[in-house]
Amino acid sequence: MIKDRIAVFDSGLGGLTAVRELFSVLPRENIVYFGDTARVPYGTRSVDLIRRFARQDLEFLLQYEPKAVLVACGTMSAVALEDLRTMTDVPVIGVVSPAAQAAAKATRNGKIGILGTAATIQSGAYEAEIRSLRPVEVISRSCPLFVPLVENGYVGRESIAYSVALDYTALLREAGVDTVILGCTHYPLLRPLLGEIFGENVVLVDSGREGALELANVLYRQNLQTQKPFATEHLYFVTDEVDHFTQLAGMFLNSNLEGKVRKVEIG
Amino acid sequence: MIKDRIAVFDSGLGGLTAVRELFSVLPRENIVYFGDTARVPYGTRSVDLIRRFARQDLEFLLQYEPKAVLVACGTMSAVALEDLRTMTDVPVIGVVSPAAQAAAKATRNGKIGILGTAATIQSGAYEAEIRSLRPVEVISRSCPLFVPLVENGYVGRESIAYSVALDYTALLREAGVDTVILGCTHYPLLRPLLGEIFGENVVLVDSGREGALELANVLYRQNLQTQKPFATEHLYFVTDEVDHFTQLAGMFLNSNLEGKVRKVEIG
Predict the structure, then answer these.
(1) B241 vs A152: CB contact, 8 Å cut-off?
(2) Under an 8 A CB cutoff, do B44 and A148 touch?
(3) Is B96-207 the same fold as B5-95+210-263?
(4) Is B38 on the interface with A (CB under 8 A)?
(5) What's the ipTM?
(6) Residue B1 pLDDT more than 60?
């Protein structure tokens, strides 16, 4: 029974965008979510530290004996995925490779933009993955303020998120990209804003969504889907206080998490 | 000998603005600095967590048996100072009270603005301190993005820091404040920008500087000044990688910290 869960984790709220997709494509699966809100953001930290945090996060989740793991974080997927895979025998899915594949398929003019955290962009992970699939032009931009913006609930058109987003997207718009990877799972929360800025002719690839679809594929291929008729209980853990997370999370998931989120200490 | 040090700490780089002031007012003192760069920022986290982090930070520094401690962080000074004072018998100086005193003295029109982190503004600490001194109008604004901006080196006129700063200062400017407390030790790094935005008739009170002056006063009153003719060795510790910190720190302190910063694990 307990081995029937899907574990999902992120530095904070962002991974919930992938959970939302999982609810939609795998509505019968039980999920255990972990957000390291005490140490968010990860994407401006060093690779060594991100790897250490990532290992601690997964270690916590492995207590729940998941049947598959979704690293719902662009930063950890970009720099720590191989590390994490050594810790368990169950499938560990990141968001980089699925998003890169979706972008390589989507582009018509061969110009792909990548928005990600500093660590993600520096790693070159998305770029390498895309170029292994197709020879395209890739324009990358690190957006160190997007995670703080989202974690603080600034996602609206009227907020300072707008001027920050204008700045971060300038090079991509000038280059005329027709496809943009939202390379961090926090960024879909800025999607309305980014959609307005890029216009309707630019495809925005949601890395969390692509990761969730890939996980659904893996469950299907490995015959790991649940036999239960419906999801019975999702678990949510965070490392800082529950209230702030519950409030914002409910908004993003369109469901009320009141009383369902627990605080834990790790590391 | 070892009991002759001044300990200074912050969540990251910001406290260095107070160190710079200490170098100027107490050039003969040896300093041990700690910046918790692995967990920065603090100001968007819960009060409980900030207190836990603060205790861990001070615990680390107490190994160096300091003769006085400067909490060079607006957030910890606002919510954790009493906690920290129970941990040691040596003087523990925060930045809130000294900055509030300076602002109460400086204002001519009785309108004081306060810029601080979310936790600092929510605590009402500066406001309470000022009102205990003088009946004035206080306009507060939390600036959750300023610390990420500074920690990532965005402090220039041409950077997105400018549009963010315009937004954060709007209410204060509309209210016609003539004095503004830079209530977080990161903010003096945005001083050129903020000075330009507020104009030369507005006094900007640097909380780190006021904290440093207060610490110098306390050493003098308690006869704790060093007997050494000059400072022999400053120590710098951080919790994430050394390179990024060294680079930015050198810029802020106007001295080269290459090879002088060490990485430690705490908590």
Answers:
(1) no
(2) yes
(3) yes
(4) yes
(5) 0.91
(6) no
Write down the pLDDT at residue B66.
98
Domain ranges, ordered by start, for chain A: 5-95+210-263, 96-207
A2-26: pLDDT as tens digits: 589 999 999 999 999 999 999 999 9
Identify which of A15, A119, A28 has the alpha carbon closest to the alpha carbon of residue A61: A15
Grouping H, G, I as helix, E, B as strand and the rest as coil, residue B156 is coil
The mean per-residue pLDDT over the stretch B207-214 comes to 98
Do the Cβ atoms of A164 and B167 come within 8 Å?
A: no
Class of domain B5-95+210-263: alpha beta
B184 is catalytic: yes
A96-207 topology per CATH: Rossmann fold (3.40.50)
Of A144, A167, A241, the CB nearest to B148: A144
In chain A, the residue whose alpha carbon lies closest to the alpha carbon of B117 is A152
> Does A241 contact B46 at a Cβ distance shorter than 8 Å?
yes
Closest residue in A to B241 (Cα) is A46
Mean pLDDT of the residues in chain A: 95
- State pLDDT tens for residues A201-248: 999 999 999 999 999 999 999 999 999 999 999 999 999 999 989 988
Convert chain A into a string of H (helix), E (strand) and C (coil).
CHHHEEEEEECCCCCHHHHHHHHHHCCCCEEEEEECCCCCCCCCCCHHHHHHHHHHHHHHHHCCCCCEEEECCHHHHHHCHHHHHCCCCCCEECCHHHHHHHHHHHCCCCEEEEEECHHHHHHCHHHHHHHCCCCCEEEEEECCCHHHHHHCCCCCCCCCHHHHHHHHHHHHHHHCCCEEEECCCCHHHHHHHHHHHHCCCCEEEEHHHHHHHHHHHHHHHCCCCCCCCCCCCCEEEECCCHHHHHHHHHHHHCCCCCCCEEECCCC
Kindly tell me if the per-residue pLDDT of A52 is higher than 80: yes
pLDDT in tens, A164-174: 999 999 999 99
